């Protein structure tokens, strides 16, 4: 598949407010995660601390899922031709449910409060059901003609599985159900990181990287088989986890790591062939993302072999903050100004150049702050110092505050252009 093979239906795009509300809200949860780290720096000592669970879900659900759901409201109709019913109402309900449900989940995990955990299960469960039903309604009415639309379907299945496992875990914590928590956590993390977020990131990359980073297209075999092979390996790995087949589980985990590394290495290789003489900010963000993902995968494999609490912490920081947050941020800096330009053009207005909607200098400052925050988190995790942990929390707050400010500036430029 090439980007030329895709028929992008820009006329089917929803109102700018549909995805934008998610993009503006997402950095707020990252900012709160930094505040949690400032108040509880010991969360970097173990992934099982209350603070670590709260901060992880503030990033994974509050930041990542907000951006991903917002992007899907745009991608599904434009790329896959899947128009959701009554998008203004659905996007508003999903946004409200995701925001309130995430806040309740983080508070419940951080304080160990069963009522908040139960509330999160109900609200997030209803939110997932509404979003997935609306997406399925649109997708079932469209043919699967290219890799990206097919992979979007697989990602939605991954979100359904990861969300179900997460709600089961929260219910177990709230009600004390007699279920094997470590096994459920392992399955939840695997499907959330790879089956949902990983497949969605790859599906978006098949289009976004060649289009916005001016690279050659991904190899046809990779786009044709990668997501299917990843989901198949993940399903087999899940069976091995449930049946407690340790050796099979390790071999399949290694296969998943190879598949993930293949995607990351291919992306970096394509970026080196970009027609841009100097890599732009989005390319730099993606390069940091791919390198972090590879390093995080190495930590995951080592954690299967060596029982050391530091390795899962490093893997979480590298994959979540270094991998997904970097890539998502890079996409935001292309998608948001592009959507602003697109909607202005569709209204018949004189749209400013995208560089005027989103100047380079503020983006560079934010990405520098993001890289500093990543390094600070890794140093704090290795050192075990509360002081360094708090300093890392400050850098995370600064990073997401800058991202929020940059998103708001694009919105202000869009409104000024409409007013003029």
What is the radius of gyration computed over CA atoms, rounded to a whole number of angstroms? 20 Å
| Strands, total number | 0
- Helix/strand-derived class? mainly alpha
Low-confidence stretches: 1-5
Rounded average pLDDT: 91
Which CATH C-level class is it? Mainly Alpha
Main beta sheet: none
Instruction: Report helical residue fraction.
Output: over 70%
Structural description of this entry:
- The protein is built from 13 helices and no strands.
- The longest helix is centred in the last third of the chain and has 37 residues, at 310-346.
- It is an all-alpha fold and 420 residues long.
- It has helices spanning 17-39, 50-79, 87-111, 114-139, 147-175, 181-213, 220-242, 246-272, 281-305, 310-346, 354-357, 360-383, 386-419.
- The protein has a single domain (9-419), classed as Cytochrome c oxidase-like, subunit I domain (Cytochrome C Oxidase, Chain A), CATH 1.20.210.
- It is 81% helix and 0% strand.
Provide a short characterization of the protein structure.
The chain is mostly helical. It has 13 helices and no strands.
Summarize the SSE layout with pairings.
Blueprint lengths: L16 H23 L10 H30 L7 H25 L2 H26 L7 H29 L5 H33 L6 H23 L3 H27 L8 H25 L4 H37 L7 H4 L2 H24 L2 H34 L1
Helix pairs in contact: 1-2, 1-3, 1-13, 2-3, 2-10, 3-4, 4-5, 5-6, 5-7, 6-7, 6-8, 6-10, 7-8, 8-9, 9-10, 10-12, 10-13, 12-13
Structural descriptors:
single chain; disordered N terminus; Cytochrome C Oxidase, Chain A; 420 residues
């Amino acid at each position: 598949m090439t980007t030329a093979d895709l028929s992008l239906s820009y006329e089917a795009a929803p109102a700018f407010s549909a995805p934008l509300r998610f993009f503006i809200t997402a950095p707020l949860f990252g900012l709160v995660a930094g505040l949690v780290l400032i108040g509880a720096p010991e969360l970097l000592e173990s992934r099982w601390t209350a603070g670590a669970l709260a901060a992880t879900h503030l990033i994974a659900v509050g930041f990542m899922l907000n951006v991903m759901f917002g992007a899907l409201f745009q991608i599904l109709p434009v790329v896959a031709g899947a128009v959701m019913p009554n998008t203004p109402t659905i996007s508003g309900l999903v946004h409200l449910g995701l925001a309130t449900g995430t806040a309740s989940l983080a508070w419940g995990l951080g304080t160990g409060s069963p009522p908040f955990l139960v509330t999160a299960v109900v609200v997030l469960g209803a939110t997932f059901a509404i979003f997935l039903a609306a997406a399925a309604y649109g997708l079932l009415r469209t043919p699967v003609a290219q890799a990206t639309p097919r992979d979007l379907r697989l990602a939605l299945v991954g979100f359904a599985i990861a969300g179900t496992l997460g709600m089961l875990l929260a219910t177990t914590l709230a009600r004390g159900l007699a279920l094997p928590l470590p096994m459920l956590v392992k399955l939840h993390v695997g499907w959330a990181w790879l089956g949902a977020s990983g497949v969605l990131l790859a599906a978006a990359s098949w289009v976004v990287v060649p289009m916005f980073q001016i690279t050659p297209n991904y190899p046809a075999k990779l786009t044709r088989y990668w997501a299917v092979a990843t989901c198949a390996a993940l399903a087999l790995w899940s069976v091995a986890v449930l049946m407690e087949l340790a050796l099979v589980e390790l071999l399949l985990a290694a296969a998943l790591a190879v598949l993930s590394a293949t995607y990351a290495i291919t992306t970096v290789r394509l970026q080196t062939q970009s027609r841009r003489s100097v890599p732009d900010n989005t390319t730099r963000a993606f390069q940091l993302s791919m390198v972090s993902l590879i390093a995080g995968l190495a930590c995951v494999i080592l954690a299967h072999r060596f029982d050391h609490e530091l390795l899962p912490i490093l893997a979480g920081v590298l994959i979540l903050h270094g991998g997904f947050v970097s890539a998502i941020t890079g996409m935001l800096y292309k998608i948001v100004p592009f959507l602003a330009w697109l909607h202005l053009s569709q209204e018949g207005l004189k749209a400013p150049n995208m560089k005027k909607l989103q100047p380079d200098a503020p983006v560079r400052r934010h990405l520098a702050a993001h890289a500093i925050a990543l390094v600070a988190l890794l140093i704090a995790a290795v050192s075990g110092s509360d002081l360094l942990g708090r300093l890392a929390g400050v850098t995370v707050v600064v990073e997401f505050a800058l991202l929020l400010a940059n998103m708001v500036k694009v919105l202000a430029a869009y409104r000024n252009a409409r007013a003029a």
